Amino acid sequence: xxxxxxxxxxxxxxxxxxxxxxxxxxxxxxxxxxxxxxxxxxxxxxxxxxxxxxxxxxxxxxxxxxxxxxxxxxxxxxxxxxxxxxxxxxxxxxxxxxxxxxxxxxxxxxxxxxxxxxxxxxxxxxxxxxxxxxxxxxxxxxxxxxxxxxxxxxxxxxxxxxxxxxxxxxxxxxxxxxxxxxxxxxxxxxxxxxx
Length: 195
Hints:
By secondary structure, this protein is of the alpha/beta class. The protein has one domain: Ribonuclease Z/Hydroxyacylglutathione hydrolase-like (Metallo-beta-lactamase, Chain A), CATH 3.60.15.10. It is built from 5 helices and 10 strands, in the order βββαβαβαααβββββ. A hairpin with an 8-residue loop joins β8 and β9. The radius of gyration is 17 Å and the shape is globular. The N and C termini lie far apart (48 Å). The mean pLDDT is 91.
């Protein structure tokens, strides 16, 4: 039987897609994979679930992010004691609110909408970005991760680039247990919109 030091915490979101999972790895240091969405409800559930593991938010020493979406980075704003935050370089642009990058992002999607002649009622990129900035976090990464890297402090945890859901998407494979932290690379269901 494989034992694991990974614990799943399910956090509510204000999004139609539903809850999101955070994973806490407990050993000499506590590492958290993803950081939920920045709402009071998410924070309360997070603290309650940590307490069940005999932990408090201040026990978390390291945060590893699967991608830049607000339901995966938001609670970083409430974890200001954490000194180590790892993720893809693109996550850094969202956390630092890099104006050049965000303007390029908007321009890219607006040009794509024009090219594909998407009707105005389906052009939601500005609203989507406002929501991402509202429920996301402000900060910075202390280390950029890329394919083949190892997570400092977790040498058996291999970084795998898995873009698609987000171009910043990373997954993490614990080679000892075979556990894959896949963020939104693996979704049980998602609703699509017909255009």
